[in-house]
Write a structure and sequence with these properties.
Blueprint lengths: L2 H12 L3 E5 L17 H12 L5 E4 L1 H5 L4 H14 L6 E6 L3 H14 L4 E4 L9 H4 L5 E7 L6 H4 L12 H10 L8 E5 L4 H10 L5 E3 L9 H8 L6 E5 L1 H4 L7 H19 L2
Parallel strand pairs: 1-2, 1-8, 3-4, 4-5, 5-6, 6-7, 7-8
Helix pairs in contact: 2-4, 2-12, 8-9, 9-10, 10-12
Length: 274
């Protein structure tokens, strides 16, 4: 199955648009694990097992593992997800943005070392920074487009004078992802939940590509507005929540409470589709 096939199948099977982000911070771990970077795998695997029937995807953020020299735990976690939740695609949140042979190595890292189904990329070095990932058959890549941070305005909301109609930069990225860059139909876009009007604009410019939408939960994005702006029956959205689910409890019941929060969020997203 391609990444898109797997994504659509997970949406149908789990009745979900929710992606759980895995951003392990040992200082926030519950009692018994707190402060122990050697237990990153244990914490994340417990969250995965508690929510695997509720999500459209999992999104481990590579920096949270690398900062603690826990890449081996990330490899183990990716294998755990393939073995115990094979129906749920994994998106490695790496935001790589290099070119040439370096990009080829980053692609190998994401798809061969970690076995991810998709990866996040920064497109601002142009198509050269995207093409190496597209050579991995069936894999997906989400390009940063209109991100949820306020500083995104510094570049993404600037107009391009040398492109017809003077679109915003993020609009140009959306057009490229929908059109000439999407050689194998596996590109998606990252659009923050804190900007629902921009989600709607991106969806209009890129009507068929999947959207990865962070910012729901701890970052304050409106789940209902997000779904209404971006979801279409033939164009999936992947709405990410990380901290609000993973750290819903600091007690020994953390996995059960995370499951309850995932159910609440999933159901809110599904209700917004009506």
């Amino acid at each position: 199955m391609t990444f898109l096939d797997k994504l659509r199948a997970a949406e149908r099977r789990n009745g979900s648009l929710l992606c759980v982000g895995l951003d392990p911070e040992p200082t926030k771990f519950p009692a018994g694990l707190k402060g122990d970077a050697g237990r990153i795998y244990d914490f994340c695997a417990a969250i995965v097992d508690a929510t695997a029937d509720l999500v459209i995807a999992f999104k481990p953020q590579i920096a949270y593992f690398a900062a603690h020299r826990a890449e081996d735990q990330l490899e183990k976690l990716m294998e755990h997800m393939r073995r115990n939740a094979p129906h749920v695609p994994t998106i490695l949140d790496a935001k790589r943005g290099d070119i040439g042979s370096t990009a080829e190595q980053y692609a190998r890292e994401a798809f061969e070392r970690y076995g991810a189904d998709a990866v996040t990329l920064s497109p601002f070095m142009g198509f050269d920074s995207v093409a190496p990932y597209l050579r991995h058959e069936g894999k997906g890549a989400f390009l940063l487009c209109r991100t949820s941070n306020p500083g995104g305005d510094d570049l993404q909301a600037k107009r391009l004078a040398d492109v017809g109609g003077q679109p915003f930069l993020y609009e140009h990225v959306a057009r490229l992802a929908q059109g000439p860059w999407n050689l194998n139909g596996q590109l998606g876009l990252v659009v923050g939940a804190t900007y629902p009007a921009e989600i709607e604009r991106v969806r209009a410019l890129a009507p068929t590509v999947p959207l990865l939408i962070p910012g729901v939960g701890a970052q304050g994005g409106d789940a209902v507005a997000t779904v209404r702006a971006g979801w279409r029956p033939d164009a999936p959205i992947v709405v990410n929540s990380s901290r609000a689910i993973c750290y819903a409890s600091d007690g020994e019941d953390f996995a059960a409470v995370a499951r309850n929060e995932a159910i609440r969020t999933r159901d809110a997203l599904e209700k917004a589709k009506a």
